[in-house]
User: Fold these one by one.
Assistant:
Number 1:
Amino acid sequence: MLDDAIQAQLKAYLERLQRPIELVASLDDSANSQQMHTLLTQVAALSDKVSLRTDGDNPRRPSFGVAQPGDAPRIHFAGLPMGHEFTSLVLALLQTGGHPPKVEQAVIDQIKALPGSFKFETFISLSCHNCPDVVQALNLMAVLNPGVTSTMIDGALFQDEVNARQIMAVPTVYLNDAKFGQGRMTVEEVLAQVDTGASARAAAEISQKAPFDVLVVGGGPAGAAAAIYAARKGIRTGVLAERFGGQVMDTLGIENFISVKETEGPKLAMALEQHVKAYDVDVMNLQRAAKLIPASEAGGLIEVQLDNGATLKSRSVILATGARWREMNVPGEKDYKAKGVCFCPHCDGPLFKGKRVAVIG
Ligand SMILES: Cc1cc2nc3c(=O)[nH]c(=O)nc-3n(C[C@H](O)[C@H](O)[C@H](O)COP(=O)(O)OP(=O)(O)OC[C@H]3O[C@@H](n4cnc5c(N)ncnc54)[C@H](O)[C@@H]3O)c2cc1C
């Protein structure tokens, strides 16, 4: 299942485990179960800190959980986490084994403090490049908070569930059996939705901010460039972004960024963020501007009102709000989004195998 090179690489990663972990498999007689057993046996053989049990009682078969010995697994993989999901498996192993995650301490603290029970189920396809980020965000929450479980479900393997829940786009996330979200989501975005106090806390914090010289609305490449140019002049600069990174977060291969032969969208977005944060720029991510009130009406400074009720003031505002998926404005389009109307052929394509499709554009 895993070739020699991958095994050698994984073995090196597993040396970072700080405590034992257990793989708990729930299998049946199917060929997929055999493949999963082979994979898990190979993984367990790569480190004396990894053990394998095959007496799991998860009704989804084949599936396996990752846990510390003695604990019930909170991370589950229903399907083989190969393809784009292999990284999700590696991170689940490492983080369950005590390897520190690469996220800000404030995010870790927010996850740990989250009260309640959260059962996340993420339907994916192995060819979807947006899915692993969602799986990894939810897995991280499950590692850090005992009230959270996260299950990756390969839609191709659990077709009955896909049909019963009428899932027609991946990733699709369910929380406590109700539809939670669809599409790429960062851990911060998930937290903003489930941590009910977070929005009010953010609004209070943002409203306290002193006026900016330049406030950029939009955190894509254009907004990032504008912020860097402004901050380099030594003026007070802020960036307000619904989703920092913008559209490049939705793509993988970028080959026309001159001087960089090829890169990937999320990598470019991370580089943009690091570049912006190298300057004194106040980045307010996951915040949506709802209304702009010109200086003439607001009494001196321009006001930007946010969805969460907060207001920011600035001497100048740069709007770099980019673009969105182009819609056709035909009846039913909005209602059927992610239920048959999709925007990512290579992510969602596998769910339409054998079905009649129309391609527009
Ligand atoms: C799948 C895909 C593949 C692509 N591949 C390539 C490629 O290979 N090469 C290439 O050159 N280009 C590619 N593009 C296009 C490229 O991503 C865009 O041209 C570029 O991102 C535009 O940058 P931008 O900063 O103007 O806007 P965007 O990237 O659209 O960013 C807009 C920003 O504004 C924010 N925003 C919007 N409304 C609000 C609001 N009300 N309040 C707060 N924030 C708001 C958004 O959250 C986002 O941060 C691709 C795009 C997609 C979707």
Number 2:
Amino acid sequence: MINLQNVNKIYRTNDIETVALENVNLEVEKGEFISIMGPSGCGKSTLLNIIGLLDSPTSGSVELCQTMTGTMKDRELAAFRNHNLGFVFQSFHLIPSLNVMDNVELPLIYRSHVSDKERKQMVREVLDRVGLSHRLRHMPAQLSGGQCQRVAVARAIVGNPEIILADEPTGNLDSKMGAEVMDILHRLNKEDGRTIVMVTHNEDQARQTDRIVRFFDGHQI
Ligand SMILES: Nc1ncnc2c1ncn2[C@@H]1O[C@H](COP(=O)(O)OP(=O)(O)O)[C@@H](O)[C@H]1O
Ligand SMILES: [Mg+2]
């Protein structure tokens, strides 16, 4: 499902050069749920952004869903991301001026063949799955952190992507809310067979996934 070969990422700003990833090779099978661990600054978010086609490697190849992504143009990349990838971030990244339903509907707006009625139905179904059917018209500011993250998970999965990428999804949550979000991720993996790559600092959460990949200073260890 995910295949990275010899991926390097070097950030260059003026005369400073930062090697964020060095010769990373990573293969993730369809239906696998893996954890990425390592100290702050070791390249975890860079790795996730590269897998998620939000950033491109300095060298090396990224294959997703049996498609080589290196030669894709911006518009192709956007369409590929929209159909195949769902993101969950530590700080939720909800749009504060949109209510719960409208936030979750956003990824579907770019799908011209889906009617307004179908879209609303898909949104209601995913919000039901994350246990937020009773909060459809609430604004993000009226929700707890755990509820915000469940909205963000609903938004990530509403378009049925094969791959879910989560960057410290419980990092801003207390342990109870974090456990609820983890439950949802495990269900998406077990029941729907979604492939999940999650960055976490939590050893207990990581142990519950199929495999832990550890990084230090841009290297896999
Ligand atoms: N846009 C950027 N420009 C320059 N350096 C960056 C940029 N993004 C990340 N880095 C550097 O790359 C390294 C890896 O960062 P990151 O992937 O965010 O680490 P992590 O998520 O593991 O904390 C760090 O040294 C960071 O300072
Ligand atoms: Mg990070």
